Description:
Layout: E1 3-10, E2 18-24, E3 31-40, H1 43-49, E4 59-60, E5 64-72, E6 84-87, H2 97-100, E7 118-119, E8 126-127, E9 137-141, E10 145-147, H3 154-157, H4 163-174, E11 182-186, H5 190-202, E12 206-211, H6 214-223, E13 227-230, H7 236-242, E14 249-254, H8 259-267, E15 269-277, H9 291-297, E16 300-303, H10 311-323, E17 335-337, H11 342-350, E18 357-360
Parallel strand pairs: 4-8, 11-12, 11-14, 12-13, 14-15, 15-16, 17-18
Antiparallel strand pairs: 1-2, 1-4, 2-7, 3-5, 3-9, 3-18, 5-6, 6-10
Helix pairs in contact: 4-5
Amino acid sequence: MAQEVRGVIAPGKNEAVRVETIVVPDPGPGEAVVKIQACGVCHTDLHYKQGGINDEFPFLLGHEAAGVVEAVGDGVTDVAPGDFVVLNWRAVCGQCRACLRGRPWYCFNTHNAKQKMTLTDGTELSPALGIGAFAEKTLVHAGQCTKVDPSVSPAVAGLLGCGVMAGIGAAINTGQVGRGDSVAVIGCGGVGDAAIAGARLAGASKIIAVDIDDRKLETALGMGATHTVNSKTTDPVKAIRELTDTFGVDVAIEAVGHPATYAQAFYARDLAGTVVLVGVPTPEMKLELPLIDVFGRGGSLKSSWYGDCLPSRDFPMLVDLHLQGRLPLDKFVTETIGLGDVEAAFERMHHGDVLRSVVIL
């Protein structure tokens, strides 16, 4: 029988979000209903609200979530009712050309639930990133549920579902940061700070945090940065080169998604170094670089999709590292809030006052 729960929707472009009654159907084949315990407030949710993703309003917001599986549909074998899970938005298919080549983190045919959640009047909702977890319960594809150690705090675990995984993965999976490497991270929001934490975890010897906000740079030091550069007052490329004996860094991670900061990352790396773009640009942005510089500097220019993660591999590992005291995921949680506080959390995010607000249900 379908259930009615409370959830946060974005009714229209730039309209204030509101708490509504959401109808969650019983899980069909391959689907699961998850009782949400915590969900982070991510910039992507704000982009949905602003119409920056698409115009399929109304949206059921929220996607950085952890909770307990309540029910599963036919054919589901990997998770069962009672399992504590982190939700992911790239449930791999196992059958596409990327999966069959042994590269499931590039899966080109990821799954979401086929059924729609609705408002009580039957209006279909578009769940953010196929999850929609600013709700007491949500319907997802069972492959979007990744079991992790249930002793971890849901507020911490849920953050692996998007921004934290994207940043850590940009450093470890995409950038392949290794022991003794030098790393620069441009943009020290949640994703950038996670990239810093990932670089530290990988054994980087020098981690240079770059931002225009001294508050964010201070936070970056707590995440593992060894040096900071305020690019509002200092040329970041020059500063990074001075900190690396004029050579530049082995890996430069751009966590802003802007042509100007991408160019900074490009020129701040060493010869044969790697640039990783994990910041998400807007469709109208254009990048212009001298082709001779692209050729002459060598190395790799990479984009990082969701930190090139494989949730079934990476989520449990990162939770274990956190529980061992080796990955300070709790430092990402600035505040905990209720469902009715999401609009105010967006405002605090806009002003850079929080790293992550987390809705507790």
